[in-house]
Each structure stands twice: as C-alpha cells, then as structure tokens.
Predict the structure.
Amino acid sequence: MARDRAGLEEALRRIPELRAEFWSNLKVLGSADTLNQSLEKAGRVADYMEFAELMCRDALEREESCGGHFRTEYQTEDGEALRDDDRFAHAAVWEYQGEGTAPVRHEEALNFEFIKLATRSYK
Amino acid sequence: MSDMKLTLKVWRQAGPEAAGEFKSYPATASEHMSFLEMLDVVNEDLQAHGEEPIAFDHDCREGICGSCSLVINGSPHGPKRGVTTCQLHMRSFKDGDEISIEPWRAKAFPVLRDLVVDRSPFDRIIQAGGFVSVPTGAPPDGNAIPIPKEASDRAMDAAACIGCGACVAACPNASAMLFTSAKVAHLSLLPQGQPERYRRVLAMVNAMDEEGFGGCTNFGECQAACPKEISIENIALLNRDYLRGTLRERVAGTPASGVM
C-alpha cells in the first residue's frame, strides 16, 4: 500500500462526512434490549470510522517511509523506503481529546545503545 | 447452472422467554454459495424490507471456531458428514428444495434468539477441569518427555473437537458426553495431563451433570453428527477413568487428585 499527502488529506476530509452520514442516516432494526447482531455490526462500523481517521492522521504526520508505511513522496531513486530517523526514530501514541477535538500525539524516543541504525537492502 | 429457488423454514424466536415458531422465506442461491452466504443474502433482503434479520452464530467460516450451529433438515451441521455448517455448500441442495433450519435443541443450551443458543455450559465444563498444571519458568526441552506416536495421535484426534455442541444437538438425551470425553481424552492421554487425570474427569462429569445435560445411553448419534468425526471411543475412555477416579477417591478418603 502506498499513500501520499493529497490522498490522506482527501480521506481526512471525507471520513468525517461519512461518519456524519453514518450517525444521521442509519437503519438498525430491532432494539437494544435483546440480542441484536445488527446493532453489534453497527457498533463495529462506528469503531472503524474512528480508527480509519486516526490511521490517516498518523500516516500524514509521518513524513517518511518505513516498513509497511510507504509515503510515495519519501522514496529513494530505486523506489525503496526512505526513512527520516532524525524526526521519526520514536514510538508514538495518540491521546483522545473528546469528540470534535484533534487528538494529541505523544512521542517516546527510540534509543539505540549498542546497535547503530542502518538501512537494510533487499537487493 | 442457474440459481436455485428454495423455501426456507426458519425457527424465529424473539428471546429466551418468547414463544418461537417456524417462518417461511423464499431464497435464491447459486450452487457455489456456502449455506451461511445463502442466509446472508436472505438477511440482506429481510432488512431491505424492514424485517429483523435471522440471528445465527458464525465467525471463522472455515470450520475451526465452532461458532456456527444450525440443525438443517433435522441434522446438526446439515446432511454432509465431517463438516460444519459454514463448510456446507448449496451444491448439496437442489432447485425447489424446502430446507428447515433450527437452533440446537437442548435444555442446557437455551435459545437466545432465533438460531443462536447459549453454549456457555461448555465453558463451565472446561473451567471445571480442562487444564493441566505446568511449572512456570523456562520452557522444557521438547524431547524431554517421550510420548508414544499412538498416544499423541489419539490425543490429537480428541483435540480436534471445536466445542460446537453438535453432539448435544444430535443426542436424543441431549448428552454432552462426546464433548466432555474429547476434552478429557485429549489431556489424559498425554503425560502432561496426568497430575489432574482423575480429579479432572470427576470434576468435568460433575459440571456436565450440573448444567442439565442428559446421560449417555450409547445411541452413537453424536459421532455421526460431529463435524470433526470425534469417536465415541473417547466416551469409553472417560467412563474407565471416571470409575477409577471414583474408586481412588473412596479408597484414599481424599480427593482423587491427592494420590496418583
């Protein structure tokens, strides 16, 4: 999978629209008082909406390519992933700030004491 | 081949306390569809018409999770041997067929809704004894415990049980003996299962009885219905260990687990 800024920004524009439609134009039959498999599925779709937005947000923030994350703007001349260890050698988590508010990104640096970071070639 | 037209007679029941009834639905299916895909299409159609979809359990749809559980034309998991409902395909049916679809029927498995039953009694049987004690720490060398090929094969055959409950649904007594015996055999045939061997069988049989499953009277319907073709030989093994366990408990005056 390859992503770029334009595509991610478009996704981030459209997901809230889709979510608004989901919450305002949805038919779930039955009630919440009995076993309701349709309601279970609707709950999962709601989760996917949240998760999809966060994934796009994170991919947009991460201006490098590494492993399964490939941004087409960040590649070598041979089309290989181009890392940016100065800015992205860290683990990150997003903290939820409530509905309608952008989440906050927290970073924890990855410190390599004994092994130097290198780029592996698969060629 | 063109699509086949079918009539489904489906058990609908709004909840555990509600009265249930069979309802007829027309269905169209291609021979390539699985039975559950056919039901998915029926449900899409029902929802489009504002009727609540037919509730049924399903998960992996590849015969390993033990979730799917339909009595189809009177047979648990349908007419084919050795397959679960999700592995049943519409090519096993023909144009014009009327197909009846019911939930597992057993006192110990109350219907929650439509075709969904509560199988947590099986979980409680497992909790009663379906475990082994192992020392914590580093894993032991795999070759340190010799196991005869025949024992490992038999244990693996018993361990193939996916806990779907078809054995209970097929049994005229709604007995859970095939399920419980498969779990007992899979552990008791192996060296790792020896410390709890007799305590296990007594506890699991006791749990099985408490849940309201019936007794085994050797009908053998369970092994015919089992999608994993578990043999009733396991029931014989359970009965032998149950007898030994009972005698040990009586002789020692302590729980069977106390003395090996």
User: Anything to note?
Assistant: Chain A has a mean pLDDT of 94. Chain A touches chain B at residues 27, 29-30, 34-35, 37-38 (CB under 8 Å). Chain A has one domain: 5-109.
